[in-house]
Amino acid sequence: MAGTEDAERGCAMRLARWCACLFLTVAVAAVANAQGPKYDLKKDVILEQRLSESIPLGLRFMDEGGRDVELQRYFDGKPVALMMPFYQCAGICTAELNGLVKALKQMKLKPGPDFRIVLVSINPTEKPQLAAMKKQAYLAQLGSPEAGDAWHFLTGKQEAIKALADAVGYHYVYDAETDQYIHPPGLIILTPKGKISRVFGSVEYNPRDLRLAMIEASDGKIGTRTEQVLLACYQFDPAKGRYGVAVARVLQIAGAATLAVLCGYIGVSLIRERMRASRAGTTQTGTEAEA
Questions:
Q1: What total number of domains does the chain contain?
Q2: Statement: the pTM of the whole predicted model exceeds 0.85
């Protein structure tokens, strides 16, 4: 009997310990689920609109050829389109790069003669060899090998990446569990002096909007006269990330044009009146002289 009681008591204790472990595991899981991710997508993974702010052009990175380069190198009088993906990303990075290539194919302005494109990986473990492979792949997709001199794929150290991301308002987080970077999509248009001109927060880019942004960033030094006049009728909406017709500006231009036409008409009418009056006076003088 004693042996049976001891066995039952041991079994009960083991069952109690098992139940306690199970309860603890469930409790920990519940707490973890309640806490959720260690980041807030609405606060920690965003792209700000820091228009007119300057970026640090003295930052150093490695280009796709393994050369140590200063960011200033790519600001040589033309606007620059900046994107911060990471090259091993198969998700949003691929989508935004494909969207960029699609827009570039439809634009009259071209990388090289009109603007530069600079990609900076946010993953400090990625190396120039991978950047070079990505560059070759996207140049082939674009179908313009000559754009290689104007489209650069950079890698760098964490300090430089962080400094550039902070300057342009590009906020992302590293998820250790998935070994992935959680980041927003976005294309940042910079002036030749490194000031933020326009920010597009999407994976699809309207060719017209991208063209207008480049012309605006260049201060009208690229693009045709027609495009520069067209820009005067459009206004960028940072909230929507696209250009729209500026009704007030169009009305101002239309009003000015109407006023100019009216003034011209009045001026021509006055000149004609004076000419008629002058001819009439000349004729009367001649008649009086004959009399």
A1: 2
A2: no
